[in-house]
Amino acid sequence: MSHPSEFLWYIPNQVEGGHRGDTTPANAWNLDTLTRHALALEQHGWGGALIGTGWGRPDTFTVAAALTARTTTFEPLVAIRPGYWRPANFASAAATLDELSGGRVRINIVSGQDNLAAYGDSEGDQAHRYARTKEFMRLVRRLWTEEAVSFEGAHFQVAGSTVVPRITPHGDRRHPRLYFGGASEAAERVAATEADIQLFWGEPLEGVGERIARLKRLARDLDRDLPPLEFGLRITTLVRDTTEQAWADAEAKVDDMARKHGQADQHRRSPAVGQQRLLDLYQRGDVLDDNLYTAPGRYGGGGAGTTWLVGSAADVARSLRNYRDLGVTHFVLSDTPYLAEISRQGDQLLPLLRGGSSLVAPREHSQELT
Known about the structure:
Blueprint: E1 6-11, H1 31-43, E2 48-51, H2 60-70, E3 75-80, H3 87-100, E4 106-109, H4 126-145, E5 149-152, E6 157-161, E7 178-181, H5 185-194, E8 197-200, H6 205-221, E9 230-240, H7 243-260, H8 273-281, E10 287-288, E11 292-293, E12 308-312, H9 313-326, E13 328-334, H10 338-348, H11 350-356
Parallel strand pairs: 1-2, 1-13, 2-3, 3-4, 4-7, 7-8, 8-9, 9-12, 9-13
Antiparallel strand pairs: 5-6, 10-11, 11-12
């Protein structure tokens, strides 16, 4: 079954200013500023935005609830960590926000590095961490779709648990979709059995194609009992009016990163498997495929800031369609300054992607928070 493509943006959720070169000052972090981003996303054709998480940042779920109350179609992709919540508490909170917003909630489950000691969490080794994540995802989905749930796992237990309110189905959507990332073998086994959407970082087409094939095989081998796994891409897209201007601006940004951080910044701590894959790409060349720029990874670029798709709107749309041809249907894009790029890329890039694939327009929702 072919799924239509969906396009989300990114809200950094940082009190400090300057995230990846953003121009919003630190003292401007407030509900009005965040709301301007969410409303601009609605106005320029985006379905919603990923809201980042991590200890030392504002609480992501609270931010998502506030923005949902201020908007009508904006869909928050709420990043959460199993260590922050008990599964039943989280299932109830998400079901409540989903029902109040008319079905606008999406969830990104994060199992990467964090300051665990600051909030009293302990994850153990990689096997322990992903075993806990697997239980969390399985139990949350059961709590959303079943009543009087009893579960006795190695990490979580509930008895006779029924989440209220019950989630209202919207078409074939029975509950908020669960996005998940991770490139290790342990992470991929969790994705293959528990995730609705596997998110990839900005790897070359060949690498993404190989991972899609491997995840599909894993899903079969592990007897996945959910609808087929879907795939997403989280990447920086640097779009300018011309190819030449885009590359000039990209190289200027990297030069600025080099001056501020230097090469040593990329190895501040031991990166996760997926991040290390990105950091290793620049050894193959500064530009891979047609316009995948790897140089940012040398100078402190992390996550979606490690590799960039660079070019005119036509160049970047062509590259994103190449990922679409591999089976990627969920795209989380961004560039800085975030607010200005919402409109630029919404107006220049999204129309080209609508022409080349079936874009899901933001749904009209029957309910809002008031």
